[in-house]
Amino acid sequence: MIGRNVIAAGFVLSLGACTDESAEIGGTPQADAETTDVAVDAPEDVAQDGVDTPDSMATDIAVPDSEDAPDTTGPPRALVFEENPIDSPSPVEVVLTDLNPQQKGRLTGGYANVQNCVADKDAGKAMPVEFGGFKLDLTLCAPKYTALPEDGVYTHITPPETQSIDSDAFAEVMMYHHIQRIHGYFKDGFGLTDLDYPLDALVNVQVHVALCDSWAAFGNALFTPEGSFNFGIDFDFGFEGAAIIFGQTADKDFAYEADVIAHEYTHAMIGATRLNAITVDEQGLSNLAGALNEGYADYFACTTAGDSVIGNYALNAVAGLTVCGVPLSTSGNLARDLATFRTCPADLTAEVHADGEIFASALWAIRDALGAEKADAVILGALVGFTQSTGFTEAAQATLAEAQATLDAGDAAAVEKAFGDRGLLACERVIPANRVGVRGIPLTFEAGGALGNGPLGPVTPGYVQIGFLVPEGASSVDLVLEVGGGAGDVDADAVVKAGGSAVQLGGGPGSGHDGVARIALRKGASNKELVVTLSGSCLSPGPWSAAILNEGDGFAVISARLEISPEGGDANTLGCP
Ligand SMILES: [Ca+2]
Ligand SMILES: [Ca+2]
Ligand SMILES: [Ca+2]
Ligand SMILES: [Zn+2]
User: ipTM of this model?
Assistant: First the structure.
Protein backbone atom coordinates (compact mmCIF):
# COMPACT_ATOMS: atom_id res chain seq x y z
CA MET A 1 0.00 0.00 0.00
CA ILE A 2 1.18 3.48 -0.67
CA GLY A 3 -0.33 5.58 2.07
CA ARG A 4 -0.81 5.23 5.81
CA ASN A 5 -3.85 7.33 6.65
CA VAL A 6 -4.93 8.48 3.27
CA ILE A 7 -8.19 6.80 4.00
CA ALA A 8 -9.94 6.29 7.28
CA ALA A 9 -12.38 3.60 6.50
CA GLY A 10 -11.35 1.65 3.46
CA PHE A 11 -13.52 3.41 0.98
CA VAL A 12 -14.40 6.97 0.56
CA LEU A 13 -16.90 9.02 -1.26
CA SER A 14 -16.60 12.41 -2.69
CA LEU A 15 -19.72 14.37 -3.37
CA GLY A 16 -17.90 17.66 -3.26
CA ALA A 17 -17.07 19.79 -6.20
CA CYS A 18 -14.01 18.90 -8.13
CA THR A 19 -10.97 20.90 -7.27
CA ASP A 20 -9.33 23.05 -9.86
CA GLU A 21 -6.20 20.96 -9.71
CA SER A 22 -6.29 19.97 -13.32
CA ALA A 23 -3.84 17.65 -14.86
CA GLU A 24 -2.45 20.07 -17.30
CA ILE A 25 -1.38 18.97 -20.70
CA GLY A 26 1.28 21.32 -21.79
CA GLY A 27 3.32 21.69 -24.92
CA THR A 28 3.79 19.22 -27.68
CA PRO A 29 4.35 15.62 -26.71
CA GLN A 30 7.78 14.46 -27.65
CA ALA A 31 9.25 11.07 -28.09
CA ASP A 32 11.28 10.38 -25.01
CA ALA A 33 14.39 8.30 -25.29
CA GLU A 34 14.70 7.73 -21.58
CA THR A 35 11.30 6.19 -21.24
CA THR A 36 11.42 4.15 -24.41
CA ASP A 37 14.84 2.65 -23.88
CA VAL A 38 13.63 0.40 -21.10
CA ALA A 39 11.55 -1.49 -23.61
CA VAL A 40 11.41 -5.18 -22.82
CA ASP A 41 11.03 -7.67 -25.60
CA ALA A 42 9.58 -5.03 -27.81
CA PRO A 43 7.91 -6.33 -30.92
CA GLU A 44 10.14 -5.96 -33.95
CA ASP A 45 7.89 -3.41 -35.51
CA VAL A 46 8.18 -1.07 -32.56
CA ALA A 47 10.45 1.74 -33.51
CA GLN A 48 11.97 3.95 -30.88
CA ASP A 49 10.71 7.06 -32.55
CA GLY A 50 7.19 6.49 -33.60
CA VAL A 51 6.56 6.95 -37.26
CA ASP A 52 2.88 7.07 -37.84
CA THR A 53 1.97 4.20 -40.07
CA PRO A 54 -1.40 4.10 -41.75
CA ASP A 55 -3.58 1.50 -40.11
CA SER A 56 -5.36 -0.75 -42.50
CA MET A 57 -6.96 -2.75 -39.73
CA ALA A 58 -8.56 0.00 -37.72
CA THR A 59 -11.91 -1.70 -37.70
CA ASP A 60 -10.48 -4.64 -35.79
CA ILE A 61 -8.82 -2.88 -32.97
CA ALA A 62 -11.65 -2.83 -30.48
CA VAL A 63 -12.40 -6.51 -30.79
CA PRO A 64 -10.82 -8.51 -27.99
CA ASP A 65 -9.43 -11.96 -28.59
CA SER A 66 -9.11 -11.39 -32.27
CA GLU A 67 -7.10 -14.05 -33.99
CA ASP A 68 -6.34 -11.91 -36.97
CA ALA A 69 -3.02 -11.76 -38.66
CA PRO A 70 -0.28 -9.97 -36.73
CA ASP A 71 -0.86 -6.28 -36.28
CA THR A 72 0.86 -4.38 -39.04
CA THR A 73 0.11 -1.04 -37.52
CA GLY A 74 2.16 0.68 -34.95
CA PRO A 75 4.23 1.39 -33.17
CA PRO A 76 1.69 1.77 -30.36
CA ARG A 77 2.62 5.24 -29.25
CA ALA A 78 1.00 6.73 -26.17
CA LEU A 79 1.22 9.71 -23.86
CA VAL A 80 2.20 9.37 -20.20
CA PHE A 81 3.44 11.45 -17.34
CA GLU A 82 7.09 10.63 -16.85
CA GLU A 83 6.69 11.28 -13.13
CA ASN A 84 3.40 12.93 -12.17
CA PRO A 85 1.24 15.97 -12.97
CA ILE A 86 3.23 18.22 -10.63
CA ASP A 87 6.85 17.35 -11.43
CA SER A 88 6.35 16.60 -15.13
CA PRO A 89 3.03 18.16 -16.14
CA SER A 90 3.53 17.76 -19.89
CA PRO A 91 2.85 14.20 -20.96
CA VAL A 92 5.62 12.68 -23.06
CA GLU A 93 5.28 10.25 -25.92
CA VAL A 94 6.39 6.67 -25.34
CA VAL A 95 5.88 3.36 -27.09
CA LEU A 96 3.81 0.80 -25.20
CA THR A 97 6.15 -2.16 -25.24
CA ASP A 98 5.35 -5.80 -25.76
CA LEU A 99 1.59 -5.52 -26.29
CA ASN A 100 0.19 -8.91 -27.13
CA PRO A 101 -0.96 -8.82 -30.79
CA GLN A 102 -3.43 -11.60 -30.04
CA GLN A 103 -5.19 -9.37 -27.50
CA LYS A 104 -6.24 -6.43 -29.60
CA GLY A 105 -8.20 -3.80 -27.75
CA ARG A 106 -6.52 -4.72 -24.50
CA LEU A 107 -3.55 -3.34 -22.64
CA THR A 108 -2.29 -6.88 -22.21
CA GLY A 109 1.36 -7.55 -22.78
CA GLY A 110 4.47 -9.08 -21.36
CA TYR A 111 4.09 -8.07 -17.75
CA ALA A 112 0.84 -6.21 -17.32
CA ASN A 113 -2.84 -6.82 -17.96
CA VAL A 114 -4.51 -3.51 -17.21
CA GLN A 115 -8.20 -2.87 -16.83
CA ASN A 116 -10.30 0.12 -15.91
CA CYS A 117 -12.83 -0.30 -13.13
CA VAL A 118 -15.73 1.49 -14.75
CA ALA A 119 -18.73 3.01 -13.02
CA ASP A 120 -21.31 0.54 -14.30
CA LYS A 121 -23.86 -0.49 -11.68
CA ASP A 122 -25.37 -3.18 -13.89
CA ALA A 123 -22.06 -4.87 -14.64
CA GLY A 124 -20.57 -4.49 -11.15
CA LYS A 125 -20.77 -6.92 -8.27
CA ALA A 126 -23.35 -6.10 -5.58
CA MET A 127 -22.11 -6.01 -1.98
CA PRO A 128 -24.72 -5.30 0.69
CA VAL A 129 -22.84 -4.48 3.89
CA GLU A 130 -23.29 -3.03 7.36
CA PHE A 131 -20.97 -0.15 7.77
CA GLY A 132 -20.62 2.15 10.77
CA GLY A 133 -24.20 1.47 11.84
CA PHE A 134 -25.50 2.09 8.33
CA LYS A 135 -26.78 -0.59 6.07
CA LEU A 136 -25.21 0.22 2.75
CA ASP A 137 -26.01 -1.28 -0.58
CA LEU A 138 -22.69 -1.14 -2.36
CA THR A 139 -21.82 -2.11 -5.90
CA LEU A 140 -18.25 -2.55 -7.06
CA CYS A 141 -17.10 -1.00 -10.28
CA ALA A 142 -16.63 -3.41 -13.17
CA PRO A 143 -13.23 -4.23 -14.73
CA LYS A 144 -13.19 -3.44 -18.44
CA TYR A 145 -10.65 -2.69 -21.16
CA THR A 146 -11.27 0.89 -22.23
CA ALA A 147 -7.91 2.13 -23.55
CA LEU A 148 -8.52 1.49 -27.22
CA PRO A 149 -6.11 2.53 -29.94
CA GLU A 150 -7.02 4.61 -32.97
CA ASP A 151 -5.11 3.56 -36.04
CA GLY A 152 -2.83 1.56 -33.79
CA VAL A 153 -1.84 4.43 -31.55
CA TYR A 154 -3.02 5.65 -28.15
CA THR A 155 -1.94 9.29 -28.29
CA HIS A 156 -5.55 10.49 -28.30
CA ILE A 157 -5.81 9.27 -24.69
CA THR A 158 -4.85 12.25 -22.56
CA PRO A 159 -5.35 13.15 -18.91
CA PRO A 160 -8.73 14.68 -18.06
CA GLU A 161 -8.63 18.46 -17.87
CA THR A 162 -9.97 18.28 -14.34
CA GLN A 163 -9.53 15.39 -11.97
CA SER A 164 -12.70 13.78 -10.63
CA ILE A 165 -13.95 10.36 -9.59
CA ASP A 166 -14.01 9.02 -13.10
CA SER A 167 -13.15 6.04 -15.30
CA ASP A 168 -10.53 7.62 -17.51
CA ALA A 169 -8.47 5.52 -19.91
CA PHE A 170 -5.34 7.62 -19.34
CA ALA A 171 -4.96 5.89 -15.97
CA GLU A 172 -4.82 2.54 -17.79
CA VAL A 173 -2.11 3.74 -20.15
CA MET A 174 -0.05 5.11 -17.25
CA MET A 175 -0.32 1.81 -15.42
CA TYR A 176 0.65 -0.30 -18.45
CA HIS A 177 3.64 1.81 -19.40
CA HIS A 178 5.09 2.16 -15.93
CA ILE A 179 4.68 -1.51 -15.03
CA GLN A 180 6.54 -2.42 -18.22
CA ARG A 181 9.20 0.16 -17.33
CA ILE A 182 9.81 -1.01 -13.76
CA HIS A 183 9.63 -4.67 -14.75
CA GLY A 184 12.31 -4.00 -17.33
CA TYR A 185 14.49 -2.45 -14.65
CA PHE A 186 14.30 -5.56 -12.45
CA LYS A 187 14.49 -8.12 -15.25
CA ASP A 188 17.03 -6.56 -17.59
CA GLY A 189 19.16 -5.06 -14.84
CA PHE A 190 19.10 -7.85 -12.29
CA GLY A 191 17.67 -10.93 -13.94
CA LEU A 192 14.56 -11.12 -11.76
CA THR A 193 12.03 -13.32 -13.53
CA ASP A 194 9.43 -14.04 -10.82
CA LEU A 195 6.88 -11.83 -12.53
CA ASP A 196 7.39 -12.84 -16.15
CA TYR A 197 3.68 -12.88 -16.83
CA PRO A 198 1.01 -10.21 -17.34
CA LEU A 199 0.19 -9.17 -13.77
CA ASP A 200 -3.40 -8.03 -13.32
CA ALA A 201 -3.75 -4.33 -12.59
CA LEU A 202 -6.89 -2.29 -12.08
CA VAL A 203 -7.26 1.50 -12.08
CA ASN A 204 -10.01 3.97 -11.13
CA VAL A 205 -11.40 1.67 -8.44
CA GLN A 206 -14.67 3.01 -7.06
CA VAL A 207 -17.76 1.75 -5.28
CA HIS A 208 -21.37 2.79 -5.78
CA VAL A 209 -23.26 3.72 -2.61
CA ALA A 210 -27.02 3.40 -3.00
CA LEU A 211 -27.72 5.56 0.07
CA CYS A 212 -26.63 8.67 -1.77
CA ASP A 213 -26.61 7.21 -5.28
CA SER A 214 -23.00 8.15 -5.83
CA TRP A 215 -19.73 6.52 -6.73
CA ALA A 216 -17.28 6.48 -3.82
CA ALA A 217 -13.58 6.59 -4.46
CA PHE A 218 -10.94 4.27 -3.06
CA GLY A 219 -8.22 6.67 -2.01
CA ASN A 220 -5.18 4.46 -1.99
CA ALA A 221 -3.13 2.05 -4.07
CA LEU A 222 -2.03 -1.44 -3.21
CA PHE A 223 -0.58 -4.74 -4.28
CA THR A 224 -2.43 -7.81 -3.07
CA PRO A 225 -1.02 -11.34 -3.42
CA GLU A 226 -4.55 -12.77 -3.27
CA GLY A 227 -6.12 -10.47 -5.86
CA SER A 228 -8.69 -9.18 -3.36
CA PHE A 229 -8.45 -7.21 -0.17
CA ASN A 230 -10.54 -6.32 2.83
CA PHE A 231 -10.99 -2.88 4.34
CA GLY A 232 -13.94 -3.70 6.51
CA ILE A 233 -15.64 -4.77 3.33
CA ASP A 234 -14.32 -7.29 0.87
CA PHE A 235 -13.07 -5.94 -2.42
CA ASP A 236 -13.07 -8.93 -4.73
CA PHE A 237 -12.79 -8.18 -8.42
CA GLY A 238 -12.50 -11.78 -9.49
CA PHE A 239 -8.74 -11.90 -10.03
CA GLU A 240 -7.33 -15.38 -9.66
CA GLY A 241 -3.89 -14.39 -8.44
CA ALA A 242 -1.95 -11.34 -7.38
CA ALA A 243 -3.10 -7.93 -8.51
CA ILE A 244 -2.26 -4.25 -8.32
CA ILE A 245 -5.27 -2.11 -7.48
CA PHE A 246 -5.34 1.67 -7.75
CA GLY A 247 -7.92 4.19 -6.70
CA GLN A 248 -8.36 7.93 -6.82
CA THR A 249 -9.80 10.82 -4.88
CA ALA A 250 -11.64 13.92 -6.05
CA ASP A 251 -8.33 15.59 -6.76
CA LYS A 252 -5.78 12.82 -7.24
CA ASP A 253 -5.59 9.71 -9.39
CA PHE A 254 -2.94 7.44 -7.87
CA ALA A 255 -2.20 5.97 -11.31
CA TYR A 256 -0.94 9.36 -12.46
CA GLU A 257 2.20 8.98 -10.38
CA ALA A 258 4.98 6.76 -11.72
CA ASP A 259 6.44 6.49 -8.21
CA VAL A 260 3.29 4.92 -6.86
CA ILE A 261 3.11 2.37 -9.66
CA ALA A 262 6.79 1.51 -9.17
CA HIS A 263 6.28 1.27 -5.39
CA GLU A 264 3.42 -1.22 -5.72
CA TYR A 265 5.15 -3.20 -8.44
CA THR A 266 8.24 -3.48 -6.25
CA HIS A 267 6.02 -5.00 -3.54
CA ALA A 268 4.89 -7.51 -6.16
CA MET A 269 8.40 -8.24 -7.41
CA ILE A 270 10.39 -8.50 -4.20
CA GLY A 271 7.90 -8.16 -1.35
CA ALA A 272 5.35 -10.88 -2.05
CA THR A 273 7.50 -13.73 -0.78
CA ARG A 274 9.58 -11.91 1.81
CA LEU A 275 9.29 -9.18 4.45
CA ASN A 276 5.65 -9.73 5.41
CA ALA A 277 5.83 -11.21 8.92
CA ILE A 278 4.95 -9.55 12.18
CA THR A 279 7.28 -11.28 14.63
CA VAL A 280 7.89 -11.52 18.36
CA ASP A 281 11.45 -11.31 19.55
CA GLU A 282 13.10 -10.61 22.89
CA GLN A 283 12.25 -6.90 22.59
CA GLY A 284 8.58 -7.47 21.88
CA LEU A 285 6.42 -7.33 18.79
CA SER A 286 8.17 -6.31 15.58
CA ASN A 287 6.85 -5.11 12.26
CA LEU A 288 10.26 -4.05 10.97
CA ALA A 289 9.98 -6.65 8.19
CA GLY A 290 6.92 -4.81 6.92
CA ALA A 291 8.76 -1.52 7.31
CA LEU A 292 11.58 -2.91 5.14
CA ASN A 293 9.01 -3.99 2.55
CA GLU A 294 7.79 -0.37 2.41
CA GLY A 295 11.28 1.10 2.54
CA TYR A 296 12.51 -0.97 -0.40
CA ALA A 297 9.34 -0.20 -2.39
CA ASP A 298 10.08 3.49 -1.86
CA TYR A 299 13.78 3.08 -2.63
CA PHE A 300 13.34 1.31 -5.96
CA ALA A 301 10.60 3.72 -7.03
CA CYS A 302 12.94 6.60 -6.25
CA THR A 303 16.16 5.19 -7.69
CA THR A 304 14.50 4.39 -11.01
CA ALA A 305 13.11 7.92 -11.10
CA GLY A 306 16.37 9.52 -9.98
CA ASP A 307 14.47 11.57 -7.41
CA SER A 308 14.33 11.15 -3.62
CA VAL A 309 10.70 12.18 -3.14
CA ILE A 310 7.92 9.63 -3.43
CA GLY A 311 4.35 10.74 -3.80
CA ASN A 312 4.94 14.44 -4.45
CA TYR A 313 1.61 14.41 -6.29
CA ALA A 314 -0.40 11.43 -5.05
CA LEU A 315 0.44 11.78 -1.35
CA ASN A 316 0.77 15.54 -1.25
CA ALA A 317 -2.24 17.31 0.24
CA VAL A 318 -4.73 14.67 -0.76
CA ALA A 319 -8.26 16.02 -0.47
CA GLY A 320 -10.15 15.40 2.72
CA LEU A 321 -12.51 12.53 2.17
CA THR A 322 -16.24 12.17 2.74
CA VAL A 323 -18.83 9.41 2.61
CA CYS A 324 -22.24 10.61 1.56
CA GLY A 325 -21.19 14.11 2.47
CA VAL A 326 -19.74 13.15 5.88
CA PRO A 327 -16.05 13.97 6.21
CA LEU A 328 -14.03 10.87 7.10
CA SER A 329 -10.50 12.09 7.10
CA THR A 330 -8.26 14.96 6.50
CA SER A 331 -4.69 14.65 5.45
CA GLY A 332 -1.71 16.80 4.92
CA ASN A 333 1.43 16.18 2.95
CA LEU A 334 2.26 12.50 3.27
CA ALA A 335 4.92 12.52 0.57
CA ARG A 336 8.14 10.86 1.68
CA ASP A 337 11.61 12.27 0.98
CA LEU A 338 14.32 9.65 1.30
CA ALA A 339 16.92 12.41 1.54
CA THR A 340 15.54 13.32 4.97
CA PHE A 341 17.93 12.00 7.62
CA ARG A 342 16.16 9.57 9.95
CA THR A 343 17.49 7.26 12.62
CA CYS A 344 16.73 4.25 14.77
CA PRO A 345 15.42 4.53 17.41
CA ALA A 346 14.52 8.25 17.47
CA ASP A 347 12.28 8.12 14.38
CA LEU A 348 10.54 4.80 15.07
CA THR A 349 6.75 4.96 15.05
CA ALA A 350 5.67 1.32 14.65
CA GLU A 351 3.92 2.39 11.42
CA VAL A 352 5.47 0.55 8.48
CA HIS A 353 5.62 3.38 5.93
CA ALA A 354 7.08 5.85 8.41
CA ASP A 355 9.57 3.34 9.83
CA GLY A 356 10.46 2.28 6.29
CA GLU A 357 11.64 5.85 5.71
CA ILE A 358 14.41 5.31 8.27
CA PHE A 359 15.89 2.39 6.36
CA ALA A 360 15.23 3.94 2.97
CA SER A 361 17.07 7.09 4.07
CA ALA A 362 20.16 4.92 4.56
CA LEU A 363 19.65 3.28 1.17
CA TRP A 364 19.39 6.72 -0.44
CA ALA A 365 22.59 7.83 1.31
CA ILE A 366 24.33 4.75 -0.10
CA ARG A 367 23.08 5.73 -3.55
CA ASP A 368 24.41 9.26 -3.02
CA ALA A 369 27.81 7.85 -2.11
CA LEU A 370 28.13 5.06 -4.70
CA GLY A 371 25.92 6.15 -7.57
CA ALA A 372 22.72 4.42 -8.58
CA GLU A 373 24.24 1.51 -10.48
CA LYS A 374 26.52 0.21 -7.73
CA ALA A 375 24.08 1.06 -4.96
CA ASP A 376 21.12 -0.68 -6.60
CA ALA A 377 23.20 -3.81 -7.25
CA VAL A 378 24.50 -4.14 -3.71
CA ILE A 379 21.10 -3.31 -2.18
CA LEU A 380 19.25 -5.82 -4.34
CA GLY A 381 22.03 -8.38 -3.96
CA ALA A 382 21.42 -8.49 -0.22
CA LEU A 383 17.66 -8.14 -0.45
CA VAL A 384 17.10 -11.31 -2.48
CA GLY A 385 18.37 -13.31 0.50
CA PHE A 386 15.88 -11.85 2.96
CA THR A 387 13.13 -13.92 4.59
CA GLN A 388 9.60 -13.03 5.69
CA SER A 389 10.92 -11.84 9.05
CA THR A 390 14.20 -10.02 8.32
CA GLY A 391 14.52 -6.92 10.50
CA PHE A 392 16.48 -3.66 10.28
CA THR A 393 19.69 -4.87 11.90
CA GLU A 394 19.88 -8.07 9.83
CA ALA A 395 19.07 -6.18 6.63
CA ALA A 396 21.73 -3.55 7.29
CA GLN A 397 24.34 -6.17 8.22
CA ALA A 398 23.53 -8.26 5.14
CA THR A 399 23.82 -5.24 2.86
CA LEU A 400 27.12 -4.29 4.46
CA ALA A 401 28.40 -7.84 3.99
CA GLU A 402 27.33 -7.74 0.33
CA ALA A 403 29.17 -4.44 -0.07
CA GLN A 404 32.31 -5.82 1.55
CA ALA A 405 32.18 -8.86 -0.73
CA THR A 406 31.53 -7.04 -3.99
CA LEU A 407 32.84 -3.48 -3.69
CA ASP A 408 36.13 -1.81 -2.87
CA ALA A 409 36.96 -0.82 0.69
CA GLY A 410 36.02 2.83 0.21
CA ASP A 411 32.56 1.97 -1.07
CA ALA A 412 32.02 -0.60 1.66
CA ALA A 413 32.99 2.01 4.24
CA ALA A 414 30.40 4.38 2.78
CA VAL A 415 27.75 1.69 3.16
CA GLU A 416 28.82 1.09 6.74
CA LYS A 417 28.66 4.81 7.48
CA ALA A 418 25.20 5.23 5.95
CA PHE A 419 23.76 2.50 8.15
CA GLY A 420 25.88 3.33 11.20
CA ASP A 421 24.97 7.02 11.18
CA ARG A 422 21.31 6.01 11.32
CA GLY A 423 21.63 3.45 14.11
CA LEU A 424 20.75 0.58 11.80
CA LEU A 425 23.69 -1.74 12.35
CA ALA A 426 22.30 -2.43 15.84
CA CYS A 427 18.76 -1.08 15.98
CA GLU A 428 17.20 -1.53 19.41
CA ARG A 429 13.53 -0.62 19.50
CA VAL A 430 13.62 1.78 22.46
CA ILE A 431 12.20 5.14 21.43
CA PRO A 432 13.03 8.12 23.68
CA ALA A 433 9.90 9.31 25.50
CA ASN A 434 10.24 12.79 24.04
CA ARG A 435 10.13 11.32 20.51
CA VAL A 436 6.83 9.51 20.93
CA GLY A 437 4.27 11.03 18.57
CA VAL A 438 6.50 13.78 17.21
CA ARG A 439 6.12 12.48 13.65
CA GLY A 440 2.36 12.82 14.01
CA ILE A 441 1.82 9.08 14.26
CA PRO A 442 0.42 7.57 17.48
CA LEU A 443 2.35 4.64 18.92
CA THR A 444 0.09 1.60 18.62
CA PHE A 445 -0.19 -1.04 21.35
CA GLU A 446 -2.09 -4.07 20.12
CA ALA A 447 -4.72 -5.63 22.34
CA GLY A 448 -3.86 -8.36 24.81
CA GLY A 449 -4.45 -11.67 23.11
CA ALA A 450 -3.71 -10.18 19.68
CA LEU A 451 -1.07 -12.87 19.28
CA GLY A 452 -3.59 -15.62 19.90
CA ASN A 453 -1.72 -18.53 21.42
CA GLY A 454 1.54 -16.77 20.81
CA PRO A 455 4.62 -17.11 22.95
CA LEU A 456 3.42 -14.62 25.56
CA GLY A 457 -0.09 -16.00 25.86
CA PRO A 458 -2.71 -13.30 26.45
CA VAL A 459 -0.02 -10.66 26.89
CA THR A 460 0.93 -8.56 23.88
CA PRO A 461 4.17 -6.56 24.08
CA GLY A 462 4.54 -3.27 22.26
CA TYR A 463 6.29 -2.83 18.93
CA VAL A 464 8.69 -0.46 20.62
CA GLN A 465 9.82 0.17 24.19
CA ILE A 466 10.02 3.65 25.69
CA GLY A 467 13.26 5.12 27.02
CA PHE A 468 13.58 7.92 29.57
CA LEU A 469 16.19 9.62 31.73
CA VAL A 470 15.84 9.56 35.52
CA PRO A 471 17.37 12.73 36.97
CA GLU A 472 19.99 12.80 39.70
CA GLY A 473 18.51 12.70 43.20
CA ALA A 474 15.01 11.54 42.19
CA SER A 475 13.44 8.92 44.43
CA SER A 476 10.18 8.68 42.53
CA VAL A 477 9.31 9.44 38.88
CA ASP A 478 6.24 9.01 36.71
CA LEU A 479 6.40 7.93 33.08
CA VAL A 480 3.21 9.54 31.73
CA LEU A 481 1.68 8.25 28.50
CA GLU A 482 -0.94 10.41 26.82
CA VAL A 483 -3.45 8.11 25.19
CA GLY A 484 -5.39 9.15 22.11
CA GLY A 485 -9.08 8.38 22.52
CA GLY A 486 -8.91 7.79 26.25
CA ALA A 487 -7.38 5.22 28.55
CA GLY A 488 -10.74 3.63 29.41
CA ASP A 489 -10.18 -0.11 29.57
CA VAL A 490 -6.45 -0.27 29.40
CA ASP A 491 -4.97 -3.13 31.38
CA ALA A 492 -1.22 -3.13 30.90
CA ASP A 493 2.03 -3.40 32.78
CA ALA A 494 5.46 -1.93 32.23
CA VAL A 495 8.62 -3.92 32.73
CA VAL A 496 11.31 -1.38 33.61
CA LYS A 497 15.06 -1.69 33.46
CA ALA A 498 17.99 0.61 34.15
CA GLY A 499 20.87 1.17 31.78
CA GLY A 500 19.17 2.25 28.57
CA SER A 501 19.27 -0.99 26.61
CA ALA A 502 16.05 -2.79 25.67
CA VAL A 503 14.28 -4.93 28.23
CA GLN A 504 14.76 -8.54 27.21
CA LEU A 505 11.47 -10.38 27.41
CA GLY A 506 11.30 -14.07 28.13
CA GLY A 507 9.50 -16.78 26.34
CA GLY A 508 6.33 -17.49 28.32
CA PRO A 509 3.21 -15.92 29.81
CA GLY A 510 4.13 -13.77 32.76
CA SER A 511 7.60 -15.23 32.80
CA GLY A 512 11.10 -14.19 32.15
CA HIS A 513 12.37 -10.67 31.71
CA ASP A 514 15.58 -8.99 32.75
CA GLY A 515 13.88 -5.88 34.14
CA VAL A 516 13.97 -4.58 37.70
CA ALA A 517 10.21 -4.80 38.17
CA ARG A 518 6.88 -5.28 36.43
CA ILE A 519 4.55 -2.42 37.40
CA ALA A 520 0.89 -1.98 36.48
CA LEU A 521 -0.03 1.17 34.55
CA ARG A 522 -2.53 3.29 36.43
CA LYS A 523 -4.86 6.04 35.25
CA GLY A 524 -3.42 9.51 35.47
CA ALA A 525 -4.95 12.84 36.41
CA SER A 526 -7.13 12.76 33.32
CA ASN A 527 -8.75 9.85 31.56
CA LYS A 528 -6.29 10.42 28.74
CA GLU A 529 -3.22 9.52 30.75
CA LEU A 530 -1.60 6.29 31.82
CA VAL A 531 1.13 6.43 34.42
CA VAL A 532 3.94 4.14 35.48
CA THR A 533 5.42 5.19 38.82
CA LEU A 534 9.01 4.19 39.52
CA SER A 535 9.85 4.64 43.16
CA GLY A 536 12.14 3.24 45.80
CA SER A 537 15.63 3.74 47.12
CA CYS A 538 17.11 1.74 44.24
CA LEU A 539 15.86 4.16 41.56
CA SER A 540 19.19 5.00 39.93
CA PRO A 541 19.79 8.13 37.89
CA GLY A 542 20.41 7.70 34.17
CA PRO A 543 18.67 6.01 31.24
CA TRP A 544 15.86 3.51 31.78
CA SER A 545 13.69 1.50 29.43
CA ALA A 546 10.09 0.39 29.77
CA ALA A 547 8.53 -2.50 27.86
CA ILE A 548 4.74 -2.31 27.83
CA LEU A 549 2.90 -5.62 28.17
CA ASN A 550 -0.77 -5.25 27.26
CA GLU A 551 -3.48 -7.53 28.60
CA GLY A 552 -6.51 -5.37 27.81
CA ASP A 553 -7.85 -3.35 24.89
CA GLY A 554 -5.51 -1.95 22.31
CA PHE A 555 -4.54 1.69 22.69
CA ALA A 556 -2.41 4.35 21.06
CA VAL A 557 0.01 6.72 22.74
CA ILE A 558 0.31 10.20 21.26
CA SER A 559 3.01 11.52 23.57
CA ALA A 560 5.10 10.46 26.56
CA ARG A 561 6.95 12.41 29.24
CA LEU A 562 8.70 11.95 32.56
CA GLU A 563 7.59 13.81 35.69
CA ILE A 564 8.92 13.85 39.21
CA SER A 565 6.18 11.89 40.93
CA PRO A 566 3.94 14.00 43.14
CA GLU A 567 2.52 10.94 44.85
CA GLY A 568 5.18 8.27 44.61
CA GLY A 569 6.23 9.30 48.07
CA ASP A 570 7.38 6.47 50.19
CA ALA A 571 6.12 3.80 47.84
CA ASN A 572 8.50 1.18 46.58
CA THR A 573 7.15 0.11 43.20
CA LEU A 574 10.55 -1.16 42.18
CA GLY A 575 10.59 -3.54 45.14
CA CYS A 576 13.94 -2.23 46.33
CA PRO A 577 15.46 -4.23 49.13
CA1 LIG B 1 -9.22 8.52 -12.83
CA1 LIG C 1 9.33 11.28 -7.29
CA1 LIG D 1 -3.10 -6.53 34.63
ZN1 LIG E 1 3.66 0.03 0.13
Answer: 0.88
